[in-house]
Amino acid sequence: MQLRMKVFLLAVFPLLLAVAAIAAVVRLETRALAEAEMQAVQPVLVSMQREQLRHYVDLALGSIKHLHESADEEAATREALSILRNLDYGEDNYFFVYDPSGRNLMHPRQPELVGQNLWEMRDPDGLPIIQRLVEQARQGGGFVEFKWRRPSTGRVERKLGYVAFEQNWRWVIGTGVYLDEIEDAKGRIDREASRAINATMGIIVVIAGAAALLVAVCGLALNFSEQRVADAKIRALAHQVVLSQERERARVASELHDGVSQLLVSVKFIFESAQARVAMLADETRHGIGRAMGQGLDRINEVLREVRRISHGLRPTALDDLGLVPALSQMLDEFALRTRLQARFKAEDNPRMPEAVATALFRVVQEALTNIERHSQASEVALSLMSRAQALRLTISDNGVGFDPDALLDQTRCGLGLSSMRERVETLGGLFSIRSGPQGTSIEIVLPAHSLKA
User: Fold this and answer.
1) How many whole angstroms separate alpha carbon 447 and alpha carbon 387?
2) Taking the CA atoms of the chain, what radius of gyration do you get in angstroms?
3) Which residues contact 384 (CB under 8 A, 6 or more apart)?
């Protein structure tokens, strides 16, 4: 694993761990708060239900109060029961009426009970129902908890009833609410709390994701920035290395030209002078010494030519004196003479450019010609240099056997040949491309106009 990835994980992992811990604590605390709220709300809900039941019964008593003064008591009784029968506040919320003996006088949801004496009725727990309702009403009214069949479902469920005693007709009037309605209210509160918790957790997850993404983006941006800075430094260092190499080449070439070459010329003159003196000796002596002197002169001439070739290869004088185009033309002529390949050179003019640019292009062409000579098996070579307002384009092509550019551009497999050419061009801000196949190879170099300005 790379160091950058390790640093990134070290930055993101504690963040995610902290967010996960915060989320867990928030969830636990929120759940505990919801439970505490439920414990606090439950008595309030029960109290509200009790108050509502008391209020409903008071309304029921008030709705029939005006019938107390009626002259026709039987008609008033029927009308009162009819009013109470029609009063309800929900499918399972209704009023009921009993007399003190336990006989049912009105039940809107279970009319089959009307007229029956239910004094001995008991719930599934064995507790008397009607007896307790009547007793509570006689004591001034109040609440009674019992179990009764729910009209909407037919199931027997817990119910909280409130009863009051109507003095005029001596009725036990009551109503009630099934306690699961309170549980339903608690469930709604619990569901709302769960939704709130989930929403909070979602927000935390979004914040955590955004934070992790921000860290990743910042890390990538920093990585790219550092990579660009590192690449720029490497290019600058490579450029300085190339300049140092060129300066050293120029120095060695100058030393060869001004030092070793001049010494060899002096030795040649001495040999020629000695050869002239030998000509005045006797024939036998002259013949033996003259042949040896001639061989020595031939070797000196070979050494001079080799020194001049090396000096020219290190730093061609034409590049310094005449410019890039004449230097390339001279190099291509020498290449054609040496290899006996057909070479063509096309250049529209001799563009002005900085010394570093001219040297880099010269070295790229020099390296390309060396590769052609060694590996291409070509019979033709073409060199083209075109200068436009936007860019300078240099093309080197041959009709050789070609190669795989992707494989050979890997320095670990091909050395520094093509890679050094590419680095020279990219250091100048240019583009270096290779197209190769069985029909030949073409190397194209494009330098932007701003790189040609001194």
Assistant:
1) 10
2) 55
3) 345, 346, 347, 393, 394, 395
Q: What is the pLDDT of residues 251-275, one digit of tens each?
A: 665 656 566 667 667 777 776 777 6
Distance CA 246, CA 363 (A): 10
State the burial class of residue 328 (Cβ atoms within 10 Å of its Cβ: 0-12, 13-18, 19+): buried
Residues in the chain: 454
Nearest to 435 by CA among 403, 387, 389: 403
- What is the average pLDDT across 377-406? 89
Coil, strand or helix at 294 = helix
Burial zone of 97 (CB within 10 Å; 0-12 exposed, 13-18 middle, 19+ buried): buried
Cite the DSSP H helix spans in 98-179: 130-138
How far is 415 from 412, CA to CA, in rounded Å?
Answer: 6
For residues 279 and 290, the answer to whether their CB atoms sit within 8 Å is yes
Region of poorest pLDDT, from 26-30, 258-262, 337-341: 258-262
Phi first, then psi: give them for residue 99, nearest 5 degrees. Answer: -95, 170
Distances (CA, A) of 392 to 388, 396, 397, 418, 424: 6, 14, 17, 20, 15
C-alpha 334/C-alpha 313 separation (Å) is 11
Contact 427, 373 (CB under 8 A): no
Q: What CATH architecture does domain 14-178 belong to?
A: 2-Layer Sandwich (3.30)
pTM as predicted: 0.44
Query: CA dihedral in degrees (256, 262, 267, 271; nearest 10)?
Result: 120
Decide yes or no: CATH 3.30.1330.60 for domain 316-452: no
Enclosing H/E stretch for 437: strand 431-437
Q: Are strands 342-347 and 380-387 parallel, antiparallel or unpaired?
A: parallel
For 355-380, how does the pLDDT look when each residue is reduced to its tens digit (9 = 90+)? 888 888 988 998 899 899 988 899 99
Please say if the pLDDT value at position 415 is more than 50: no
- In the chain, where are the structural domains located? 14-178, 316-452
Question: Quick one: pLDDT at residue 440?
Answer: 92
Cβ contact 351:387 at 8 Å: yes
Please provide the DSSP assignment of 164-181 as one string.
EEETTTTEEEEEEEETHH
pLDDT, the chain, mean: 81
